[in-house]
Amino acid sequence: MSSGHKTVTGFCTVLLGLVLVLVGLVLRWPVWAWAVAAVAFGTVALALPRLTTPAVDPLSPEFTAEPDRPTDPPERREHTVTDVVLPSAAEDYDFRFSATVRWWPQELPKNSLPFSPVGVAVSAVLERARAVTETWQPQRASLAQHRLVGELAVMLPDSDGRLLAMAENVTLGLAEADAVRLRKLATVRKDEVLWSHERRYERDRREYLGKDVLRDTGSAVVWWLAKNDDQIHKAVDDLGVLAQLSAAANDKDVPDRYAQLVPYRTPAPEVDGSLNGDPSSNGHHGMPSVSGPFSVNGAAAPAPVDAFERLLAAMDVPAGHADSGVLARALYEGAAQVGREQASAAIRQRFDPAAPREPEPEPGLEPRAGLESEAGLEPEAGLEPGSEPSGAHGGGGGADVPEV
Asked: Per the UniProt record, which residue ranges are transmembrane (predicted)?
């Protein structure tokens, strides 16, 4: 017992005796009560030191053979690995693995070879991690990490059963360059799929419109009525438009029964050639001579004189009226401003009384060359220069051309 324990025991004993004396005086105990209190006080005073004495530690340094020898430090059974390359399901894209490896030694059989627990534990953990990562795509690195945490959180023996190993603080990721490439590839794939769907959608629409809706005019009308079933009169009014649209979709001509209903007719192509096989022209590139009829869309176009006569008839102007000369003169002056006075010369000669007449050729002289072309006529076939023409000059009753 130490001195401190002895002091506390004596203090408690004295305090207890004073309490008993005070209580006995206040209560006026009889003599026998004082005797019993004295016996009890003596018993407690003898038992109190034993009760307050601490138990002896049998392993305390004072009982050891070498009390000053330090104890051995505990064996360290963990190791940290960083940025270990593990394969993924995609070629050339590897995971980066980091973890804290922990192990627990197992009871070894006799005559077993010595080994390094660190190397065996790390090898066992990496083998388990590789079996997990090589089944995951690199773009699923975060999900593969959680899967790997669960797989490596259990202590499992290595292949030879020498120890149990596990891993904590597991991290799994990709190199930054690989992550950028994967994001770009994902964007390209999504754009390609979107473009493929758009192209297929557009092709289906073309086939639907070309082979079903616009197959012919009847199909176009039925399609239009299906879209606008309450506008029958408008469908009838737009029948020509639908016929032209279906014909254009199939690269064909509008059927004859709908030709009169087409509102937008194709303009006549520009005539490039000569009249009646005659290579002569009026001096303008690409414009045929107006001295005879020519073909437009397979039909012979009227001569300028005949066309002007029909114009006068449409304007209710008689052929011999003075207004016909004014109109012929205005046409000639307007044609002269654009360089086409030769085409309207025959019209002016016939309908304008004030127009200068061509002088008759004197006997013994050849007729002036180009007389027929100025009058809007072609020389008759089989006539030689100097022979008598069969028709009148300018279509009227002009004088005959004498022989030379």
From this structure: 7-25, 31-48
Lowest mean pLDDT among 117-126, 131-140, 381-390: 381-390
Instruction: Give whole-number Cα distances, 102 to 73, 122, 215, 267, in Å.
Output: 18, 9, 77, 91
In 55-188, beta strands by DSSP E:
78-87, 94-105, 156-157, 163-173
Task: Provide the β-strand partners of residue 168.
Answer: 100
Sign of CA dihedral 289, 292, 296, 298: negative
Q: If you ran DSSP here, which 8-state letter would residue 288 be given?
A: B
DSSP letter string, 27-78: HT--HHHHHHHHHHHHHHHHHHHHHHSPPPPTTSGGGSSSTTPPPPPPPP-E
Indicate the CATH number for domain 78-174.
3.30.479
Q: What is the pLDDT of residues 90-134, one digit of tens each?
A: 999 999 999 999 999 888 877 778 888 999 999 999 999 999 999
d(CA 152, CA 170): 8
Task: Give the other-Cβ count within 10 Å of 304's Cβ.
Answer: 19
CA 4 to chain centre: 90
H or E element that contains 300 = strand 299-300
Tokens of 296: 């437009």
Per residue in 68-97, pLDDT (tens digit) is 566 666 677 899 999 999 999 999 999 999
Residue ranges of domains in the chain: 3-56, 78-174, 188-257, 295-395
pLDDT (average), residues 29-48? 81
Cα torsion angle, 186, 189, 192, 193, sign:
negative
**Does 168 score more than 90 pLDDT?**
yes
- In Å, what is the CA distance from 36 to each residue of 28, 154, 356? 14, 70, 180
DSSP, collapsed to helix, strand or coil, labels residue 84 as: strand
For the stretch 325-329, contacts whose Cβ atoms lie closer than 8 Å and that sit 24 or more positions apart, written own/partner, are 325/351, 325/352, 325/353, 325/354, 325/355, 327/351, 328/352, 328/355, 329/354, 329/355
